[in-house]
Write a sequence for this structure.
């Protein structure tokens, strides 16, 4: 293999020299622009050998039949060469460039990977590979400071847009809910996230809900993460309320897209100050998830419905609890959690297993029988494991994947 590689290198050098000799017939000056040689590239992860110098660049065609996350690496095989990689579109326009290794995400289409010498000259090995690119999706977060107040005292709630894409948002709508018996909402203030003179519309608050809509004026957009608006909640009576603001955003295309939204919890106490901690995490299931905390006497202390993406947050007095996550038709999860005053405690991501239709912590033939007796129906809802509004073999398939497993799943 090494002999073949050296022979290939010699042949390339000879070809380059012959090309150079032909180019000087009738002229003695060096060409002002380097020659760009189009090479052939066929397979992912294969290694191709090339040669570049100040007068010779190499361009490798790449065809993507679907969107791809990929890297192109041009590794010098000897000393004296550092490589520059340019990604070009079908017309030869540069999309991006990098030294040695280029990583990019591109839609389906025709492209070129052009290799140049950043310095020096010589042979190189080119490899193009698919890459796993981790991206963070846009979302909305609601937070309260402080998270616990006495009756008659106030907390400030902030609603933020996170991971805003580069093209930005031209407008956003926030639908907020809370327990009007526990807190009172007032003083809704929109920030300059959408520009200094944004257009705003506020509906409510009334009966435990309100809507805040904001749009950038004169071409302004929200292009950086930040707080979109704030409001004040005042404690009316002892209790606890979840405060959720679900965001829908527009990029100026007349389409509203709902974002995953994280809620917060405000606890109202009497004159006795209760030191509390916050419990957060994420539970994945094909159904709505409920997370509850039980004390040492198995008494329910706090409960909350998880957000659509499974994230949740709830507060309770400092102490040790059993955290329980449940979803209809799924094996539950349990874990011990100690909450520390004024601190956040997080349990790891847990995925509930589909198939426990009768809720007895075991997935067995009795659960399968329920699917059979309810086939092509909609009841009981626990048997519709994939939430497509019909009970059939697709639900049985999910059950079969977890057949004979028992719960609750250990969550810690």
């Amino acid at each position: 293999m090494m002999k073949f590689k050296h022979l290939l290198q010699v042949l390339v050098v000879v070809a380059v020299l012959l090309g150079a000799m032909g180019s000087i017939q009738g002229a003695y000056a060096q060409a002002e622009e380097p020659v760009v040689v189009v090479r052939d590239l066929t397979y992912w992860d294969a290694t191709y050998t090339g040669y570049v110098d100040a007068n010779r660049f190499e361009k490798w065609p790449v065809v993507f039949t679907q969107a791809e996350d990929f890297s192109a690496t041009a590794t010098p095989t000897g000393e004296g060469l550092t490589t520059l990689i340019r990604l070009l579109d079908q017309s030869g326009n540069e999309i991006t460039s990098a030294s040695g290794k280029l990583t990019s995400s591109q839609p389906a289409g025709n492209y070129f990977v052009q290799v140049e010498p950043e310095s020096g000259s010589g042979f190189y090995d080119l490899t193009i590979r698919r890459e796993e690119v981790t991206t963070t999706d846009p979302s909305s977060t609601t937070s309260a400071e402080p998270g616990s107040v006495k009756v008659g005292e106030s907390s400030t709630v902030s609603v933020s847009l996170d991971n805003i894409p580069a093209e930005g948002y031209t407008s956003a709508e926030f639908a907020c809910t809370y327990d009007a018996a526990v807190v009172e909402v007032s003083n809704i203030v929109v920030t300059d996230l959408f520009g200094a003179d944004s257009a705003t519309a506020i509906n409510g608050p009334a009966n435990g809900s309100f809507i805040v809509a904001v749009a950038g004026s004169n071409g302004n957009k929200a292009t950086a993460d930040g707080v979109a608006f704030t409001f004040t909640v005042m404690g009316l009576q002892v209790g606890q309320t979840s405060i959720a603001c679900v965001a829908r955003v527009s990029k100026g295309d007349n389409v509203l897209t709902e974002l995953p939204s994280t809620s917060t919890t405000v606890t109202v106490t009497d004159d006795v100050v209760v030191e509390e901690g916050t419990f957060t995490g994420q539970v994945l299931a094909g159904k709505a998830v409920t997370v509850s905390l039980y004390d040492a006497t198995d008494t329910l202390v706090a409960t909350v419905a998880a957000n659509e993406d499974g994230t949740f947050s709830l507060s309770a007095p400092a102490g040790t609890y059993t955290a329980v996550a449940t979803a209809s038709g799924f094996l539950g999860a349990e874990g011990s959690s100690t909450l520390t005053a004024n601190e956040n405690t997080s349990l790891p991501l847990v995925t509930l297993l589909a198939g426990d239709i009768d809720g007895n912590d075991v997935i067995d033939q009795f659960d399968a029988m329920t699917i059979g007796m309810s086939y092509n129906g909609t009841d009981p809802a626990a048997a519709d494991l994939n939430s497509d509004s019909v009970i059939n073999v697709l639900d049985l398939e999910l059950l079969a994947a977890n057949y004979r497993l028992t719960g609750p799943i250990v969550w810690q």
User: Anything to note?
Assistant: The chain is about 10% helix and 50% strand.
